[in-house]
Amino acid sequence: MSSMDLVKTAAAMVAEGKGILAIDESTGTCQKRFDSIGVECTEENRRAYRDMLLTTPGLGDHISGAILFDETLRQATADGTPFTKVMTDAGILPGIKVDKGAHPLAGAAPGEKVTEGLDGLRARLEEYAELGAKFAKWRAVITIGENMPTPGCIDANAHALARYAALCQEVGLVPMVEPEVIMDGEHDLDECYEVTEATLRSLFSELYEQNVLLEGTILKASMVISGTKAQGRAGVEEVARATLQCLLNAVPASVAGVVFLSGGQSDEEATAHLDAMNKLGDFPWPLTFSYGRALQAPALATWGENPAANVAAAQAKLAHRARMNGLAAKGEYDAGLEAA
Ligand code: 13P
Q1: CA-angle at 173, arms to 155 and 51, nearest 5°
Q2: Ligand 1 binding site (Cβ under 6 Å of any ligand atom)
Q3: Which of 25, 53, 76, 238 has CB atoms 3.0–4.6 Å from 234's, for a disulfide?
């Protein structure tokens, strides 16, 4: 696998008007989502749900890739077609979540976490590449709270992200590096800005130290946004301007693309923020989405009402959100289109 292949895959992930569908919930997170709709979290129900999502007609029009969980990468549709084949036929690149979750960081204050999963990662990545994965995601969690995050927590997470990214590129997988600054809390926009900037600076310093090719790397970023419990939360325009300013200060121009997580924003809010940034323009990377909840929420609710009967109705909900976000990735979204 050459550097050119990595660059080509990364460019395809952020092709114009397209973004990433994140459906890589671990079994525990899936349990929470299914509890919310009253569906039992069995392996077959998780398969059926992902089957519904991945076979959505026209999904590839606005979705360039989808991030899967280990179990899903090995599963197939009801008629036995591997999900990886369904995706490839639809022009959707298979991606895989490869971290083993965020765990308490030893020696740090309660609440600070570091993502685990480096041991044995080379062999796991080799297998994922053989199974058809083209890119891999690793999520670090940075929490804003009293006296946190500490530089020790930020740097430990950035180091792990860089080690995983280098291993990915060694086997020809594009790393999607995700340092998520968590939205929960009372912090304001400025505090989120400072923490996000420090996190990104540490990340790119570590990526440089580990010889990671930035042209073959996708950054999955959180937006600079007020905490969920903040007083007087910042509006769409303010979030868009602060996020762009922060990225411009800390993200090298050679990075192949920046995709955002939704992190607990409502579906329409996440679309509006992405659109506002693309309307402002003047940045060196493609800027698009890699939403989990903000793409799935309406489809999940509709499917949950009657999983057997509502497949087409749920797929229509996903197709709509994919189209809205595809427009936002070009700065062509308008809230008036939501009803259309
Ligand atoms: P959300 O968009 O629901 O935050 O999920 C994206 C993701 O992949 C988080 O790791």
Answers
A1: 105
A2: 22, 24, 139, 178, 261-263, 291-294
A3: 238
